[in-house]
């Protein structure tokens, strides 16, 4: 697959990844390379990756605990301290090898250490490939609230090697599909329809669909890198989805929800709100719900949790002037930003998802 040039950095695929990083290392000669991993990517991805890059430059491995619950300032402090103890300087390079948590937190750590050192994202999950590692958003959670602290700063390059997907459990693959479905719903009806018969998609086809999903996001980010307008459409499903995800994280007794699973629920809920507020066709809302339930199953939201989830919406980072902002759909491929919905409508939409 051909590389994608964005306004921030280049995205390379599969075998070409290692040609480009080798050239980058030869040209820039970092003083030291730091590879950030969690325990899963340390075990399943790091040996393969190190075998591919083949450099004699000094490499240090820094491991953090896996999981969204560790995407916080405390983890950053530990990594900043490790970088200092291991002699990182302004010419050091950080490589973030992992899923969305690693690329989010690793990009933030690199962007702020010594006021910024270069970094490269090597996403190993489908979610990170099509979303988290593209567009320069970095950051951490604060007190259980999603991505409250961060900066927009693109790395030197992104390496998308779909060979890493063979290491993922099925749930993690589904989690990444949520963002691909979202890209279709907000920008490209044909991309949405691709997933109508998911079981018939070959690996070669899937690689092509990953690239197409990245191209959809790239086009949006290139036009609006700092989310002043158009880039907001990428938040479809995320206002409700992040609140549901945060509520689950804050209550360990609740069933665990991966990011993509929560966003999938959010898309169904926000599709219903779109019907009520913008007149989205009822048949489209039904289609969105049926396809998402077919892929993700139908975990119910306890009605007793509705008010707590709505309370979390007030802290969403996309809010402005005290208003909760939604991205809604007029039709597939026709999103509308900065929409609002009352509490009663949100409750009805959550009930619609449960039904």
TrEMBL record:
InterPro entries: Dehydroquinate_synthase, DHQ_synth_AroB, DHQ_synth_fam, DHQS/DOIS_N, DHQS_C. One of its GO terms (biological process) is chorismate biosynthetic process. This is 3-dehydroquinate synthase. One of its GO terms (molecular function) is 3-dehydroquinate synthase activity. Keywords: Cobalt, Lyase, Metal-binding, NAD, Nucleotide-binding, Zinc. It comes from the Bacteria. Its cofactor is Zn(2+); NAD(+); Co(2+). Residues 176-319 form the 3-dehydroquinate synthase C-terminal domain. Catalyzes the conversion of 3-deoxy-D-arabino-heptulosonate 7-phosphate (DAHP) to dehydroquinate (DHQ). GO terms for cellular component: cytoplasm. PANTHER family: 3-DEHYDROQUINATE SYNTHASE. Residues 62-174 form the 3-dehydroquinate synthase N-terminal domain. Its EC number is 4.2.3.4.
């Amino acid at each position: 697959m051909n590389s994608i040039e964005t306004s921030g950095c280049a995205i390379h695929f599969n075998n070409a990844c290692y040609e480009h990083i080798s050239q980058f290392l030869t040209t820039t000669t970092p003083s030291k390379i730091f590879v950030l991993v969690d325990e899963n990517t340390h075990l399943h991805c790091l040996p393969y990756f190190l075998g591919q890059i083949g450099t004699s430059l000094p490499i240090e491995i820094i491991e953090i605990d896996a999981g969204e619950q560790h995407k916080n300032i405390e983890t950053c402090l530990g990594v900043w301290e490790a970088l200092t103890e291991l002699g990182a300087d302004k010419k050091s390079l950080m490589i973030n090898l992992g899923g969305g948590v690693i690329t989010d937190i690793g990009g933030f750590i690199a962007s702020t250490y010594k006021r910024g050192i270069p970094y490269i994202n090597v996403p190993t999950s489908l979610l990170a490939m099509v979303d988290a590692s593209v567009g320069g958003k970095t950051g951490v959670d604060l007190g259980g609230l999603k991505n409250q602290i961060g900066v927009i700063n693109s790395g030197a390059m992104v390496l998308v090697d779909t060979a890493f997907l063979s290491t993922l459990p099925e749930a993690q693959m589904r989690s990444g599909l949520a963002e691909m479905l979202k890209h279709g719903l907000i920008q490209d009806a044909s991309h949405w329809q691709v997933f109508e018969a998911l079981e018939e998609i070959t690996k070669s086809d899937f690689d092509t669909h990953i690239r197409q999903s990245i191209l959809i996001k790239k086009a949006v980010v290139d036009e609006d890198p700092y989310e002043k307008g158009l880039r907001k459409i990428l938040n479809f499903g995320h206002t409700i989805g992040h609140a549901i995800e945060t509520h689950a994280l804050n209550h360990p007794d609740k069933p665990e929800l991966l990011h993509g699973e929560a966003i999938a629920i959010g898309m169904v809920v926000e599709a219903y709100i779109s019907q009520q507020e913008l007149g989205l066709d009822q048949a489209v809302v039904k289609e969105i719900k049926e396809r998402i339930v077919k892929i993700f199953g139908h975990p119910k939201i306890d009605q007793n949790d509705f008010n707590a989830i709505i309370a979390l919406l007030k802290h969403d980072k996309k809010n402005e002037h005290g208003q909760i902002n939604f991205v809604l759909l007029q039709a597939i491929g026709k999103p509308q930003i900065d929409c609002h919905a009352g509490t009663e409508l949100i409750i009805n939409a959550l009930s619609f998802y449960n039904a």
